[in-house]
């Protein structure tokens, strides 16, 4: 059974505290949108699809337990709409969150025609729950399409060695994963030789989370330092690179975890195909190119201290820090984008 980053039943939400992995497995109770916002901002939950689902469900729990709301259906719709706007401010780069918020706003707007505010809340809760189910289904479809496509594209390879970056598995989504879903699917079909995962500094999502998922699912895997990727490719040990995405612009430029751009350059130099695996909710057709993607900068502590900012100080005092969470890989360096369709 794959790991669950999100545990939900109507009126109750628990998020796996991913900052504690792999050493401790602790779930936090999320009772409202404020707790959801903090969990997303502090990276209790991360990964573009998981952030969107966790945000939506944190508000679903809040409204499920709100029997004493004073106001009419339009007030209820406005209440939800304002809370969604607030949740979107938790992390700006991933488009899935704002995409989910816009879809949910439409649902509550339509429901505000009903005579009772509770009908608006019920419509919101049901739409959020549907997003949770839909994410798992779309991830499995991404995994299957990706594995079948790679097999078809490179028939000369009986088994693939795949390099991935950051964490794009069950922990980054509602379940199964996007790029890691492709790796899972290759493994299930007997087509995986080995998965290579990068540490993904400075927050170590690769060593802490991806390695944890791969070991948990008994998938043959090797951890490498971020800076070892080019050498691994040069040694002929990588057949394909598959990464996730936080936002894909209309021209195919893709924002993903910092270090993705370097991997794409190295893959291009070594003639290795480089694929992005992401749900269609990660595609933002309103942005013409990657130049318009807002890149979140995170705390200097993540670089100054060990364990992505949670451990002891390692850097010299007085040094300044540049710590972007994402970079943009130009479409020209991407062989293709694997989606659920």
Secondary-structure map:
Layout: E1 6-9, E2 12-16, E3 27-30, H1 33-41, H2 48-64, H3 73-88, H4 95-111, H5 117-153, E4 160-164, H6 179-188, E5 192-198, H7 205-216, E6 221-224, H8 229-234, E7 240-243, E8 247-249, E9 254-257, H9 260-270, E10 274-277, E11 283-284, H10 301-304, E12 326-329, E13 336-338
Helix pairs in contact: 1-2, 1-3, 2-4, 2-5, 3-4, 3-5, 4-5, 5-6
Give the key terms.
single chain; 341 residues; alpha/beta; Four Helix Bundle (Hemerythrin (Met), subunit A); Rossmann fold; 2 domains; 6-stranded parallel sheet; 4-stranded mixed sheet; 10 helices
Helix/strand order: EEEHHHHHEHEHEHEEEHEEHEE
CATH class of the largest domain: Alpha Beta
> Architecture of the largest domain in CATH?
3-Layer(aba) Sandwich
Q: Helix content range of the residues, please?
A: 40-55%
What's the count of strands?
13
In the predicted model, the low-confidence regions spanning at least 5 consecutive residues are: none
Whole-number mean pLDDT = 94
What is the CATH topology assignment of the largest domain? Answer: Rossmann fold
Task: Report the sheet-strand fraction.
Answer: 15-25%
Describe the structure.
With 341 residues, the chain is of the alpha/beta class. The protein folds into 2 domains: 6-136, Four Helix Bundle (Hemerythrin (Met), subunit A); 144-338, Rossmann fold. The chain contains 10 helices and 13 strands. The strands form 3 sheets. Strands 6-5-4-7-10-13 form a 6-stranded parallel β-sheet, with helices on both faces. Helix 3 (73-88) packs parallel to helix 5, helix 4 (95-111) packs antiparallel against helix 5 (117-153) and helix 5 packs across helix 6 (179-188). The protein is globular and about 65 Å long. The two termini are 25 Å apart.
């Amino acid at each position: 059974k794959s790991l669950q980053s999100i545990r939900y039943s109507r009126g109750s939400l628990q998020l796996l505290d991913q900052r504690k992995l792999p050493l401790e497995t602790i779930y936090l109770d999320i009772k409202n949108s404020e707790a959801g916002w903090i969990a997303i901002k502090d990276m209790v939950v991360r990964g573009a699809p998981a952030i969107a689902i966790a945000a939506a469900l944190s508000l679903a729990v809040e409204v499920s337990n709100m029997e004493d709301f004073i106001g009419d259906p339009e007030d209820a719709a406005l209440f939800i709409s304002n809370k969604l706007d607030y949740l979107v401010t938790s992390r700006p780069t991933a488009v899935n969150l704002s995409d989910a918020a816009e879809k949910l706003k439409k649902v509550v707007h339509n429901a505000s025609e009903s005579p009772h505010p509770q009908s608006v809340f019920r419509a919101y809760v049901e739409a959020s729950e549907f997003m949770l189910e839909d994410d798992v289904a779309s991830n499995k479809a991404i995994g299957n399409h990706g594995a079948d496509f790679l097999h078809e594209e490179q028939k000369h390879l009986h088994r693939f060695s795949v390099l991935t970056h950051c964490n794009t598995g069950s922990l980054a989504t509602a379940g199964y994963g996007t790029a890691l879903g492709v790796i899972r699917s290759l493994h299930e079909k007997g087509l995986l030789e080995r998965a290579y995962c990068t540490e993904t500094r400075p927050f170590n999502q690769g060593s802490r989370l991806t390695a944890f998922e791969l070991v948990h699912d008994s998938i043959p895997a090797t951890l490498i330092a971020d800076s070892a990727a080019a050498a691994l490719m040069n040694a002929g040990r990588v057949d394909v690179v598959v990464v996730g995405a936080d936002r894909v612009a209309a021209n195919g430029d893709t924002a993903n975890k910092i270090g993705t751009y370097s991997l794409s350059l190295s893959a291009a130099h070594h003639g290795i195909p480089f694929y992005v695996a992401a749900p269609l909710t990660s595609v933002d057709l309103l942005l013409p190119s990657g130049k318009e993607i807002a890149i979140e900068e995170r705390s200097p502590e993540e670089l100054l201290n060990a364990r992505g900012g949670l451990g002891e100080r390692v850097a010299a005092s007085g040094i300044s820090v540049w710590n972007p969470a994402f970079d943009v890989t130009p479409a020209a360096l991407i062989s293709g984008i694997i989606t659920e369709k």
